[in-house]
Amino acid sequence: MTMITTLRAGALIVVATLGLTACAAPQTNSAIYSTGHAMQASQVQFGTIIDVRHVEMRNIQQGDRAIGVALGTLAGGAVGSQFGNGNGKTAMTAIGAVAGAAIGDNVAQGANRHQATEWFVRLDKGGMISVVQNDPALFVGASVKVVQDGRTTRLVR
Predict the structure, then answer these.
(1) Does 22 or 129 have the greater pLDDT score?
(2) In which domain, by residue range, is 72 found?
C-alpha cells in the first residue's frame, strides 16, 4: 500500500466515524440534562405510572442516510480500487462502491435506532400522558413527578 493510499483510507475512516457519531441516539434518561436547562424554571405535576411498553426510537433523516451512502460509496470504492488491473480494477472499484453504499445505508439506519420505554402516567389532577424515557428506577405503580419545561417532559421518582 502506498503512502497516499494509506492516508486516503485513514481520512475515510475519520470522516465515517464523525458521520456516524453525528447520528448518535438522543438521551432519554431523566438524570441527564443539557447545559441549556440550567437555571430554567419547569412546571411540576404529580402522577402515577399505570402502564408501560417498549418502543424503538428512530431518528432517521434523509440527510443521515445520504451521509451513510456517500461515505460507504467512498470507502467501498477505495477498497475495491486496491484489487485488479485495467478493466478489472475499474469493475472492482464499482463493485466496492455499490457494496459500500448499501453497507453505509444500513449502518446509518442502525446507528439511529435504539430501544426505549414509553411510560403512561395518570396525573393526580386529572388526565393522562405518555412519556418516552429510559430510566431503570421507574415501574408500574410508581409515584412520579412530571417535570415539563415547555419543550421536554421528564418523569422523576
Answers:
(1) 129
(2) 1-29+60-111
Burial 107-130 (b: 16+ CB within 10 A, else e): bbeebbebeebebbbeeeeeeeee
Return d(Cα 157, Cα 148) in angstroms, integer: 14
Q: Are residues 22 and 82 in the same domain?
A: yes
Same domain, 122 and 152: yes
pTM: 0.53
User: How large is the C-alpha radius of gyration of the chain?
Assistant: 23
Mean pLDDT, residues 109-133:
87
User: Which residue bears the cell 480500487?
Assistant: 81
Indicate the burial class of 71 (C-beta count within 10 angstroms; 0-12, 13-18, 19 or more): buried
